[in-house]
Design brief:
This is BolA family protein. This protein has about 80 residues and is α+β, with helices and mostly antiparallel strands. The protein has one domain: BolA-like (GMP Synthetase, Chain A, domain 3, 2-Layer Sandwich), CATH 3.30.300. It is about 35% helix and about 25% strand. Strand 2, helix 2 and strand 3 form a beta-alpha-beta unit. Helix 1 crosses helix 2.
Length: about 80
């Protein structure tokens, strides 16, 4: 599993999301996900939204995924 594949899955599953994924060993990853759909949601709900985009890969091909989930406003991103 590559970070780029995970990024693509997250961005396809959360329309309008932008993800930056890192991971050197192919099973442990870190991701920053910026998405308008996170507005008004608690961190656990945001994480579940991201996990849903990855389905059965979580706990399988992806052993661990450390997430930071923010809205564009929280990230300080203009025009997002």
């Amino acid at each position: 599993m590559t970070p780029d594949t995970i990024r693509q899955l997250i961005e396809q599953g959360l329309p309008g999301a932008r993800a930056h994924v890192q991971g050197d060993d192919g099973v442990h990853f870190e991701a920053l996900v910026v998405c308008d759909a996170f507005q008004g949601k608690l961190p656990l709900a945001r994480h579940r939204m991201v996990y849903a985009t990855l389905g059965d890969l979580m706990g399988g091909a992806i052993h661990a995924l450390a997430l930071k989930t923010v809205t564009p406003a929280e990230a300080g991103v203009a025009d997002a």
